[in-house]
Amino acid sequence: MTWDRIRVAKAKFEALLLRKANVVGVGVGRKIVGGKETDEPAVIVFVERKLPEDRLRKEDVIPKALDEVKTDVIETGKIKAQAAAPRARTDRWRPAPGGVSVGHYRITAGTLGGVVRRGGRRFILSNNHVLADSNRARPGDPVLQPGPADGGTREDAIATLETFVRLRFDAPDRGFTAFLRRLAARLGFRPAAQAPANLVDAAIARPVRDDAVDESVLGLGRPAGIAEAGVGDTVRKSGRTTGLTEGRVLATDATLQIEYDADVATFTDQIVAGPMSQGGDSGSLVVDREGRAVGLLFAGSATSTVFNRARRVADALGIEL
What CATH number corresponds to the domain at position 29? Predict the structure, then answer.
């Protein structure tokens, strides 16, 4: 079974799988049997909780195969954007390297991913929800290092927001609207169109002084260009909360529903790794064994870490890593 065949099946059945209760995402990976990864490609279905089939409605059971392509179910819990509680790397750093606390003046705290270039100028890279308060900020707003949750004040402004890729949130699925969606699905009708899917959660900010930032990332050095991560690859990140961690890529080409407090945003073409992050690590640059940037971390759960493809981020913001 080829990877292209798996991707075709994933794309064909993605919408159907995402309508099932308990499902939070769909991707492409290798089937796990007895806790060990096999060589067999499969469509990976991410669920909040793994439940016995007799506890699920018939329409919510994940098929064992889709057009002869096997499926595998992985429990992740709810996957949330990770900006959160004060822990490690929370001091004031000048110059500030990647991997330390940073945040828009109205959020808690996330991670400064690293220094990038656009039009010959240097900028700091992180997530929209870290530097731009999930679309609520304006260019020119102060970005603090450390972030507010770590004691940062206006006196700790290290940069000003330059630009961000706007997040598109799904329409609320509550009350009568939720009932109509479920009814339409049972009758075989396609549900009303959701907001266009997101590819990246990304933003850049302009340092207040050129010497306020350091181009290295704590524990990783300077990124050595951009690469693509594949299933089974080992990746690393340096983040505000959990520091330097390592994980393995579980799935690529993933479509996931990510919680942002009370809102939900659907992302496509994402990469899912094992547990290597916690709240506050959002914005961390993810690199491969050669130190090449492969992604920008923005969400996760107790058992998973989700990141945008680095190339998608660079193209969306017009930057060079």
Answer: 3.30.300
